[in-house]
Amino acid sequence: MSGLFFPIRRPSAGFAARRSGLPLLLVVALALLGGCKKPAGPPALGAPEVTVMTVAARDTPVDMEFTAQTQSSREVEIRARVDGFLDRRTYSEGEQVKAGQTLFQMDPKPFQALLQTAKGQLAQQQARLLVTQQNLARVKPLAAQQALSQKDLDDAIGNEKQAQAAVIAAQGQVETADLNLSYTTIRSPLNGLASYARQQDGSYLIANSSGLLTYVYQLDPMWVNFSVSQNEMLRYQDQIAAGKLIFPPNSEFVVAVELADGTEFPQHGKISFANPAFSTDTGTFLVRAVLANPKGTLRPGQFVRARISGAMRPNAILVPQRAVLQGARSHFVWVVDGESKAHQRVVEVGEWNGDNWFINDGLKAGERVVVDGAIRVAPDVPLKIVGTLASTDTGGKTVVEKGGASDTQASAPTQPAAPGAPGGASQ
Fold first, then answer.
1. Is 421 helix (H, G, I), strand (E, B) or coil?
2. Within this chain, do residues 307 and 227 fall inside the same structural domain, yes or no?
3. Which of 2, 91, 114, 125 has the least C-beta neighbours within 10 A?
4. Is position 88 within any domain?
5. Domain with 341 in it: what CATH number?
6. What are the respective helix, strand and coil percentages of the chain, to the nearest 5?
7. Is residue 229 part of a domain?
């Protein structure tokens, strides 16, 4: 065991060199890291680019919109007026019918028999009247000669008058039977659209209960009904009293109708009726407009939008909706001062008018407000004004001046009025 030993190998020169070089590399790396500069922060942002407009007060027409429903100006129930069997329907359901056109035919034979009986009874009474008249003619000269008593003369006169009354009654029976016979042919009383038949051929009709056969709707003109709530009515009255709203003379509003697909009905109408009392069920005030409907485009029961034009807001201030921002508790705009710095201004907004908003309080004519780019504005920060909204016309277009040139921009589509606005839907 003592003779055994393990040889100790010395490290090679290359290995030693590599070990000696490691600290040097670490030193160099640390020196490089220490010499690196910290990255620079974000570059300073420039002034926000905004578009502004100068506030102006002008008389502005306003429209009020309501959810409305069409109604036939004459909706007639077609009913059986006598009891009997229905023979046949003589019109096409859902089609236009003319006044006097036959719609249904009842079995006329029982009524023809009754008419014949009434005519026979009339003939009997007429014959009896003839006999009494001849008898009276003979009695009168004899009574004058006192050949007959006064009682005989009185009896003859009474019989003749009774016979006359019986003839009149019989004539009434004939007219009644003839009228009932005419009722078996059921005709339309007007030009209009006929609904479906409620009774089938062969049904027995009872005039007082099962006599409803169909409806006929007159399409021209057409009524358009809408409702105004109590709150809306009171708000209009307050605004009129304060001089903030003017209605046309004699309430001569112009009524336009927008169909369900967004198209406008070509005919305009006027308000023809306003219910003098509020509904106790809905608390609303019924208003009716009448429109010409020569082609029958409008049908009864359609839901439409009624736009009422003719009111005016004097000296109204309008700003685009995109210029008004919503704060934690109120609406506000950015007002630009003479140094092109923005200041937040709380405003009281009113109703929407197209893509603009009425400002009831908070702005004055001549002040400038930020329209585009308001989301990037901060208080008391200089602004870079790249465009000026010169005017807003009633057509909903804005003219923006940029670098001395004018560009016409189409505004956004008309939006529904804010809750509580006159243009809001009333149910």
1. coil
2. yes
3. 2
4. no
5. 2.40.420.20
6. 25, 40, 35
7. yes
Report DSSP letters for 216-234, one per residue: EEEEEEEEEEEEEEHHHHH
How many CA atoms lie less than 13 Å away from 77 in the CB half-sphere? 8
Boundaries of domain holding 137: 108-183
Provide the greatest CA pair distance for the chain: 201
Are the C-beta atoms of residues 192 and 217 closer than 8 Å to each other? yes
102-106 and 185-187: which strand pairing?
antiparallel
Q: Give the Å distances, CA to CA, from 76 to 101, 122, 137.
A: 14, 36, 55
Structural domain ending residue among the three candidates 260, 290, 312: 312
Residue 183 host element (H or E): helix 150-183
Regarding pTM above 0.70, the answer is no
Strands 212-229 and 284-291: antiparallel
**179: CATH:** 1.10.287.470
Q: What is the phi/psi pair of residue 237, to 5°?
A: -65, -40
Kindly state whether residues 290 and 362 are assigned to the same domain. no
Confidence of residue 327 (pLDDT cuts 50, 70, 90): confident
How many distinct structural domains can be found in the chain? 3
Instruction: Say which DSSP state 198 is in.
Output: S
Q: Which position has the token pair 């989301």?
A: 375
Q: How many residues does the chain have?
A: 427
78, 97, 95: which is closest to 86 by C-alpha?
78
Q: Which two tokens stand for residue 246?
A: 């003017």
**How far apart, in whole angstroms, are the C-alpha atoms of residue 125 and residue 235?**
74
User: Is residue 308 domain-shared with residue 322, that is, in the same domain?
Assistant: no
Phi and psi, residue 271, nearest 5°: -75, 125
Is 282 part of any domain?
Answer: yes
Q: Does a structural domain hold residue 87? A: no
- Residue 270 is part of a domain; what is its CATH number? 2.40.30.170
CA 140 to chain centre: 80
Q: What is the DSSP letter of 251?
A: G
3-class DSSP state for residue 202? coil
- Reported as a single tens digit per residue, the pLDDT across 345-396 is 999 888 888 888 888 888 988 899 999 988 888 888 888 888 888 655 433 3
Element (H, E) at 162: helix 150-183
- Residues pairing with 311 in the sheet: 62
User: What's the alpha-carbon Rg for the chain, to the nearest Å?
Assistant: 47
pLDDT in tens, 97-131: 999 999 999 999 999 999 999 999 999 999 999 99
